[in-house]
Design a protein that fits this description.
Blueprint (H helix, E strand, L loop, with lengths): L1 H14 L1 E2 L5 E2 L1 H13 L8 H6 L2 H15 L26 H8 L1 H6 L11 E3 L6 E3 L2 E6 L11 E7 L3 E7 L4 E15 L5 E7 L3 E4 L5 E5 L5 E7 L10 E2 H6 L3 H8 L16 E3 L6 H9 L10 E2 L8 E3 L2 E6 L10 E7 L4 E6 L5 E7 L1 E9 L2 E8 L2 E5 L5 E5 L5 E7 L7 E2 H6 L3 H8 L3 H5 L8 E2 L2
Antiparallel strand pairs: 1-2, 3-23, 4-5, 5-6, 6-12, 7-11, 7-13, 7-14, 8-9, 8-10, 8-11, 8-12, 10-15, 16-17, 17-18, 18-25, 19-24, 19-26, 19-27, 20-23, 20-25, 21-22, 21-24
The structure holds manganese (II) ion (MN) (2 copies).
The site of one manganese (II) ion has 4 residues, from loops.
């Protein structure tokens, strides 16, 4: 938060210019000073101190008194200030928790001047989601139910203690995962009965195709925290196919017949699902891999990917991106980009022509504007633990507005990553034609890089 406010302050400082009266004001302040001056309430040289010292009441009086006295039309363009202190911007309520919420969401609560129209929210915070706490850890989810526009993807945050197990289970949608913290052991069995057992650490990811049964267990020293993303907006982590739940709802005689053992073998199957539970630490990886792979063989590398071991797909002075999709991780039907943006850097203006995009903010602070067509646009602020969502083909940018590195994930419900950037569009359209539209001059167009930059150099 502090970082973002500092950055805004810095930008504001850059906007101010030396005024004839020798003081530094922002453009907005100069405009308001002009209103006061025209109304007769401000002197020939409205000082910055006097301007800022004017009370809300006096300013309101000026606004009300000016038009009738001068017999003028009210100004069509609302007055705005960089720090939102003008009477038409302020809120007379006392300090409340919700005021803090507004300060964390300045871009939406105060809205950029370019924002306009009714745009469905495309942000939700995991911090607002219900947290289900169990003996071996906790979980919470952001789905279409929390964020109605997120129709094609849903996300889950999960924390497992050292030894804590996310019960053996499966679901119809595919599961893409990103390790945020710690260490975990993951297991799966594929459709050929081959075994997968491997350990993952911070920055690693995995993909379990829909219907493939799997589990996750926290390892030492302090378990794990990770993000799961599913290619179904209506996914529900609390309603998956669980081993205990399934066996509890199968007659014991059928279980006995199925495995050709006495029914008493199943006397201790829990009557209630385990879901997330505390267990003993697993045995050494090599031992568990060998035991589970016996007979049919093993695919112990198949469902895991370690982005830290690949070269960035693109890197500039502004940051870098690692794209993980079918081309380098053949098992995945969920493509992703892991994006790092330095302070002041920008994930360039672009859109995705083939699918929606689900975002997760790992660290840092950002703002994103999504343009909706029909003259509509909206901006939200994001920080650690926030989810963003951009529908197919809607253009957007993501700007690091803090003082620390921004790391976020772009996740797509298709196997192949695709985008089109504003830069490559303009660079490969006749300059004459583009210039007829935006009147920038053709020189500007000639200087645009021929290839997309992904993250703008600072
Ligand atoms: Mn799962
Ligand atoms: Mn994008």
């Amino acid at each position: 938060m502090i970082g973002r406010e500092n950055a805004y302050r810095r930008r504001k400082t850059e906007q101010v210019a030396e005024c004839e009266c020798g003081a530094h004001h922002s453009r907005e302040e100069d405009e308001m000073a002009k209103v006061l001056k025209d109304s007769g309430l401000g002197g020939a040289a409205v000082s910055r101190r006097r301007f800022l010292g004017a009370t809300g009441a006096a300013m309101a009086a000026a606004a009300v008194a000016t038009a009738p006295l001068a017999g003028q039309e009210p100004a069509m363009k609302p007055q705005r200030s960089a720090d939102h202190h003008l009477p038409n911007e302020t809120d007379p309520r006392p300090e409340t928790v919700n005021r803090q919420l507004e300060r964390q969401n300045t871009s939406s609560a105060e809205s950029l001047e370019v924002d306009s129209g009714t745009v469905e929210p495309f942000k939700y915070s995991f911090g607002l989601a219900h947290k289900r706490i169990e003996s071996g850890g906790w979980t919470r989810q952001v789905t279409e139910r929390e964020l109605p526009i997120s129709k094609t993807l849903a996300g889950v945050e999960m924390r497992l203690t050292a030894g804590g197990v996310r019960e053996l289970h499966w679901h119809t949608s595919a599961e893409w995962a990103f390790m945020i913290y710690g260490n975990a052991r993951i297991t799966a069995v594929d459709m050929d009965g081959k075994s997968f057992v491997n350990d993952v650490k911070e920055g690693d990811l995995w993909l379990f195709p829909g219907g493939v049964p799997h589990s996750i267990q926290g390892l030492g020293p302090d378990g794990a925290k990770f993000l799961l993303v599913f290619n179904d907006g209506n996914f529900n982590e609390f309603e998956t196919f669980l081993l205990t739940d399934w066996f509890h709802h199968t007659p014991k005689e059928v279980l006995a017949k199925n495995f050709n053992v006495p029914a008493s073998t199943f006397d201790k199957v829990p009557a209630k699902e385990l879901f997330i539970f505390q267990a003993e630490m697993p045995r050494p990886l090599a031992e568990e891999q060998k035991q589970s792979g016996a007979g049919t063989g093993a695919v112990h590398e198949r469902f895991v990917f370690r982005p830290g071991e690949m070269k960035p797909t693109k890197a500039t002075r502004g940051g870098e991106v690692r794209i993980v999709d079918k081309t380098n991780f053949p098992v995945t039907n969920i493509a992703a980009a892991i994006v790092r943006v330095r302070p002041g850097g920008l994930r360039e203006m672009h859109w995705h022509p083939l699918s929606d995009e689900w975002q997760y903010y790992v660290t840092g602070t950002a703002r994103m504007t999504v343009f909706q067509a029909g003259g509509k646009a909206r901006t939200f602020d994001f920080e650690e633990g926030d989810v963003g969502y951009v529908e197919m083909s809607k253009p957007h940018y993501i700007e690091n507005v803090g003082d620390t590195e921004l790391v976020f994930l772009e996740v797509f419900p298709i196997g192949t990553y695709r985008d089109i950037s504003a830069g490559e569009w303009l660079a490969h359209t006749p300059f004459r034609l583009t210039n007829e539209h935006i009147k920038t001059g053709e020189e500007f167009l000639r200087d645009i890089p021929r290839e997309k930059v992904v993250v703008r150099p600072i």
